[in-house]
Amino acid sequence: MKTLRFFMLSSIVCASLLALPLMPSTALAKGLPPAQHGGFADIVEDLIPAVVNISSTHNFDQAQDYPELPQFPEGSPFQDFFEEFMERRQGMPFEPQASLGSGFVIDAENGYIITNNHVVRDADEVRVTFHDDETLTAEVIGTDEKTDLAVLKVETDKELTQVEFGESSVLRVGDWVVAIGNPFGLGGTVTAGIISARQRDINAGPYDDFLQTDASINRGNSGGPMFDMHGKVIGINTAIFSPSGGSVGIGFAIPSELAAPVIEQIIKFGRTRRGWLGVRIQSVTDEIAESLGLDSPHGALVASVTPEGPAEVAQLKAGDIIMEVNDQPIDEMRALPRIVAGLPIGSTAKVKYWREGKMDIADVKIGELEKAEEEGLLTAGSEIGDGGLKIDNVGVSVKELTKSLRDEFGIGPSVNGVIISNIQPRSEAARKGLSIGDVIVEINQQEVSDPQEVADIIKNAAGNGRPSVLLLINREGEVRFLALKLQ
After folding, report:
1. 13-70: pLDDT as tens digits
2. How far is CA 350 from CA 93, 180, 365, 451, in A?
3. Cα separation of 437 and 399, whole Å?
4. Which of 118, 242, 291, 421 is catalytic?
5. Do both 145 and 62 map to the same domain?
6. Which domain, by its residues, includes 408?
7. Contacts of 56 (CB under 8 A, 6+ apart)
8. Catalytic: which of 56, 99, 216, 222?
9. Which residue has the higher pLDDT, 247 or 308?
10. Does some domain include residue 182?
11. 302 and 154 in one domain?
12. What CATH number has the domain bearing residue 308?
């Protein structure tokens, strides 16, 4: 049985050539591409000179870089063969591994070229081949792993052709697009298709917001541009979804409006400078929304705030649900990091949040994510995280958090609450993944310090017809909210 996998599109140089799928010959009358009698030729003719092939080499000079050799039974003739082979290899230089990708010129005057980070990651040498077959060595100006982008620079007296970014946000599902790149090392190749979907999250990074297309893109297309019908770059081809590693009509591109600010920062600073709010967040589930009085699950739930970070200074706290930032709605959790990352460092953002059944607004001075990472603040945002009182309608037993229990479970002195001492099999708590040693810090946003408080709050919630309760759990220093249905 074949397994569907995501493949980053850079390719290793290989001897085999794979057939590329043909573009459909018919199209609906509505939405035909411009110059329909000539197809895409007029657009492509002006764009191809700006698209380049990129090769990067990785030198290995240690024997352990070879894969582990097979083991043979004692006396096997193959054992002598491989031993003799390895003796001959001793002292011979290791051949560098070469990978191929694509890129495009974004600034002809300064020689800036855009590609994917994974095309040039850990490369000892990067070379760029232009449409006229001239090859130049490129300098890596900067990279960003979070969005898989890289900026290269070449020095040349030749006149380069550049392309410009367009507006990916105005694209609609069904709009025509053209991809140009270097699939399988074949050189400049043009394919066309439509936008199949928007805002795809393929778990490639924290800012996933991919455009999906059925234009044929394959390994080696990584870093190549995707154009709209105005000849503007609206995406950077990055990954495919495939059972075999070849195109099956599901490709993904970084949208231009996510890529452009990152590229601008790399060119200006040599690295990214993203906005930072200083909160750890989680999704708002149906049960959490219900327990907090929201009509529907939306926004980003604050699980913890970084001490002395921007959010804490603005008096945001765990349990708040962030609904908007500068009038931009947070429909789902993953929208918040993207929006905040694009805010200017030092600017003041208006953050609308839900707390205790009503909306409020906080003015938050945006910090710098990279600086916070360097200072280790991202891991410092959370608190140091058989028997007992049995609470049947959620399936747990809880005990007072004594010094001996703190020592046994490694719970720091700053953590307050009650400790879970037992989980009933097949209970709601077991289904939601609670464990012995977890500390219940709050229930329904009320702090708890002894087991009877837990029992009373849950009893009152059940008596008032509440279908669930909201717990704030501390596990090994990590905190998160969890809603439990009342049985």
Report:
1. 433 333 333 344 344 444 555 545 457 888 899 999 999 999 988 664 443 333 444 4
2. 59, 41, 9, 39
3. 10
4. 118
5. yes
6. 389-485
7. 98, 99, 101, 119, 120, 123, 124, 125, 126, 127
8. 222
9. 308
10. yes
11. no
12. 2.30.42.10
Is 222 annotated as catalytic?
Answer: yes
Per the structure block, which two tokens stand in for 277?
A: 């709010």
pLDDT one-digit tens code per residue, 353-408 = 999 889 999 999 999 999 988 876 764 333 222 467 888 888 888 998 888 788 76
In a domain, 16, yes or no: no
Which two structure tokens, joined as six digits, stand for 262?
Answer: 């990152």
- The answer to whether 148 is a known catalytic residue is yes
CA separation for the pair 267, 151 (Å, rounded): 7
Rounded CA separation 325/336 (Å): 8
Per-residue pLDDT tens digits for 158-211: 999 999 999 999 999 999 999 999 887 777 899 999 999 998 887 677 788 899
Name the catalytic one among 56, 102, 148, 397.
148
